[in-house]
Amino acid sequence: SDLLAICFDARTGKELWRYEYARQKSTKGRNTTSPVIVEGLVIGVTPRGTDGLLAIKSGGEGRVTDDHIAWTFDGPSPDCSTPLFYKGNLYVLADRKGGVITCLDAGTGRQKWQGKLGGSAPWWASITAGDDKLYCISEAAEAVVLAAGDEDFKILHRIDMGGKPTQASIAIANGHLFIRTAGKLFCVGN
Prior knowledge:
Blueprint: E1 3-8, E2 15-22, E3 36-38, E4 41-45, E5 53-57, E6 62-63, E7 69-73, E8 84-86, E9 89-94, E10 100-105, E11 111-116, E12 128-130, E13 133-137, E14 142-147, E15 155-160, E16 171-173, E17 176-180, E18 185-188
Parallel strand pairs: 2-6
Antiparallel strand pairs: 1-2, 3-4, 4-5, 5-7, 8-9, 9-10, 10-11, 12-13, 13-14, 14-15, 16-17, 17-18
């Protein structure tokens, strides 16, 4: 079936606009990531089996067309991991084996850098950010801390948390990281 992006009025539930973004029939055509709202754009990942993102201009009415597409990105993209908007950049983690992470300009879709997290397990959990760092964890419970920013791909730390399979995103609250593995919940902080 066709895949649609649909925007609703949060107060009334009325449909404001819709965009048909996958016009070819596919048995793989699911999308489990959440959209990201950035500076008048609704950024979504294309369906499983394809690579890419698209940024739809908000504010349309009825059935919107390709004229409402602000930018597209045809690089590695996730099946499960929701992209992250942090300090002007959009971070996209392709969750298949190897974990390719890309930093994009959120307003234009221009690629700033790309790197590989490595490992043999998929990276299903979504990226978390805080203190100018990005936090990722693989299904094999390998946590990776990256430098956030638009300069370079830089891994700061790599930690084996033990307790695979791990699929939960790392959470941040009150200056602490909460990392859930298959058998434990870790709290990291001062």
